[in-house]
Amino acid sequence: MKKVINFTKLRYLMLAVSLLLIAGGITGTISQGGFNLGIDFRAGLSQRVQIAPEALEITSEGSALVHVIGKELTLEIPGEEGPVNYAFPFDEYLTLKDLATAISAVEGVAIELNAPGYTKTSSLIGLNFETDLAEGPVTVNMIVSAQEPSVKIEDIRGSLAELGAPQIQVVGNPVNQEFLIRVEDADELKDFSHVMAVRVEDLLEEAFGIKRVIIKQTDYVGARFAGELGTQSVTLGAIALALILVYIWFRFKLAYAVSSIVALLHDVLIMLGFIGTLQLEVSTATIAAVLTIIGYSLNDTIVIFDRVRENVSLMSDSEFKTVVNTSISQSLGRTIITSLTTLLAVGAIYVFGTGTIKIFALNLIVGILIGTYSSIFVASPILLGWTRISRKHRAKKDAEKFGKRSEVVQEAATSEKLAEEKKTMIIPQAERKLKGKRKKRK
User: Fold this and answer.
1) pLDDT, tens digit, for every residue of 381-429?
2) Nearest-angstrom CA–CA distance, 195 and 187
């Protein structure tokens, strides 16, 4: 028999801790001016750019398609009998000098090196799409391998200072010098998406060089879409909680369902308070993290509640408080092992990840800790309190409903007892009279 830990003994202390955390999160979020909404929830421009030195420039006398994808550079030259394709794998042409020599052998195509010839071709950065040389020269950039990037996030922020306070994040390994730039649409510019995209590119080229700026992706989120996305996120979250309530009510009882929902709301409020206080960016990834934690915490709570339901029958002679503590103690090993293994995986993502994925992992770490805590110290104590109040209320209703009837039953029992006593007195008297009459006859 496992040792039973009296977890419910700490329920009032843990309730105070939870209320303190929730209040602190609300206060911290308000003091910071609200949530740090990302571009997903407010109108604006999002650009993914990379600052990298120029490696080579390819030109052609006529039309020719050039593409750099994976570890290969390809050329497609139109001909009378159809296009002619050339492939230059980097594992065959190890240096830029080797690559330039091979490409120069193609008729009508010229190449100019802007980096040392001994530079490895594996450092070349791929192009976003196939480009026609008829539209002009194609520049291929490269990544400079180093311990510290030559362009840092502070440099990008300084070059874009005149735009106000754009959000800037490092994407991937900082050595790659790839950044995500987000500029809010204040509804002051006409054709904001085009004008601001050109302006961001011009400022970066002015600061770092014309051929060093690579625009890898440009997205624009309108005000209407951002508002709808925020509303839909809240609505879908509420629907999810309602469906969870119905499911647990169907599988267990209403007390179990309400306890689970309160624990989930507790987890969400603390997570949102943490995000708002630290001003972590709220994006679709944040919503995904919150929904993930809801599922994780719910699963942990259901495991404990399932054990409680079993023990209610097995420990029918014990108090419900003992049943709850026993169930938590029996599930404790599973809860700890599951939480630790999940934290190891998420912790690795947090340590080695960058940008949005790092924030996502941090939200999950906080959520896992809070979800494990709430299953033991929030959901179970609420179930205990609900059950106690429910039983007291039922006992009171029974007393009111059956109180008069029990008096009648008691009176009937008393009358029956008196009748029995009277009967015992009458029968002997009748027998004595009968015996007396028999004696007189004789």
Assistant:
1) 999 888 888 888 777 777 777 664 444 445 545 555 545 555 555 445 5
2) 12
Contact (Cβ atoms closer than 8 angstroms) between residue 178 and residue 49: yes
Q: Label residue 285 by pLDDT band (50, 70, 90).
A: confident
The CB-side HSE value for 87 (13 A sphere, CA atoms) comes to 7
CA distances to 60, 124, 398 from 102, in Å: 15, 16, 95
Where are the extended beta strands (E) located within 31-177? Answer: 36-37, 44-51, 54-60, 65-69, 72-77, 84-89, 109-113, 131-132, 138-141, 167-170
Cα separation of 293 and 288, whole Å?
A: 9
Q: If 0-12 CB within 10 Å is exposed, 13-18 middle and 19+ buried, where does residue 121 land?
A: buried
User: Among 350-359, 361-370, 421-430, where is mean pLDDT lowest?
Assistant: 421-430
DSSP state of 169: E
DSSP state letter for 93: S
178-184 sheet: strands from edge to edge: 167-170, 178-184, 44-51, 213-221
State the Cα–Cα distance between residues 219 and 284, nearest whole angstrom: 15
Q: Where does residue 21 rank: exposed (0-12), middle (13-18), buried (19+ CB within 10 A)?
A: middle
The model carries a pTM of 0.63
pLDDT at 16: 92
Place of tokens 């650009």: 47
Rounded to 5 degrees, what angle do the CA atoms 322, 328, 330 make? Answer: 100
pLDDT at 227: 62
In this structure, the dihedral spanned by the alpha carbons of residues 27, 32, 35 and 37, taken in order and rounded to 10 degrees, is 180
Sign, Cα dihedral of 296, 300, 306, 309: negative
Q: Residues 29-46: pLDDT tens digits?
A: 999 888 887 766 776 788
pLDDT band at 238 (very low <50, low <70, confident <90, very high): confident
Q: Which of 12, 98, 20, 34 is nearest to 280 (CA)?
A: 34
How is residue 165 written in tokens?
A: 């306070």
**82 vs 403, residue with greater confidence:** 82
The CA-based angle 28-31-37, given to 5 degrees, is 80
What residue has token string 């009378």?
A: 80
- The Cα–Cα gap between 289 and 363 comes to 6
